[in-house]
Design goal:
With 167 residues, the chain is α+β, with helices and mostly antiparallel strands. The strands form four sheets. The protein has a three-stranded antiparallel beta sheet. Strands 6-7-10 form a three-stranded antiparallel beta sheet. Helix 1 packs across helix 2.
Length: 167
């Protein structure tokens, strides 16, 4: 049988891996609670950007949908969330913040959020009590001065920080 092969079609239509749907309110409450905190930071630092949303894409056959943090128009960049959030709100906030940061930076082509003191993009870190926060590794002079800009959900606006400008 050289040159021929036999295959059995899969039952039902194959999932369209590029289709998505907006997640309905109340469908994933833990992820939505975490996204609400991240959206506070988006509103404070990117006032022109509508709130981020959760979108769901079909998973492989028999697998749960994949969740993503997307812009209001449905665009996202990688960063899928687990089907079930981590067992704690701080864990969910950290995952959503990281996913939001990746999508915004890739789609807006700029760093987000930015430390007003050092004009550098921040990274996700933990405060001493385990709260997810935005941290800056900016340098003044020759030695780096890493600092926490604000917990996720507590940024105060473009060009400002919770610590105050120039702090």
């Amino acid at each position: 049988m050289s040159g021929y092969f036999f295959f059995e079609p899969l039952p039902g239509p194959a999932p369209d891996l590029f289709s998505f749907r907006f997640v309905e309110p109340g469908e994933h409450p833990d992820w939505e609670e975490a996204l609400a905190l991240v959206n506070k930071d988006v509103a404070a630092t990117l006032p022109e950007e509508p709130p981020l949303r959760l979108v769901a894409c079909p998973g492989d056959a028999g697998e749960p949908e994949l969740l993503y943090v997307a812009r209001s128009n449905g665009e996202w960049h990688h960063n899928n969330l687990l089907a079930e959030p981590p067992g704690s709100l701080p864990g969910a906030v950290a995952a959503v913040a990281e996913a939001a940061q990746e999508s915004l930076m890739e789609l807006l082509h700029r760093a987000w959020p930015v430390c007003p003191d050092h004009r550098l993009g921040t990274h996700l870190c933990d405060t001493p009590d385990g709260t997810p926060a935005w941290g800056c590794s900016g340098a003044r002079g020759e030695r780096p001065v890493p600092h926490v800009l604000a917990p996720v959900g507590a940024l105060t606006g473009p060009g400002t920080s919770r610590r105050g400008k120039g702090a």
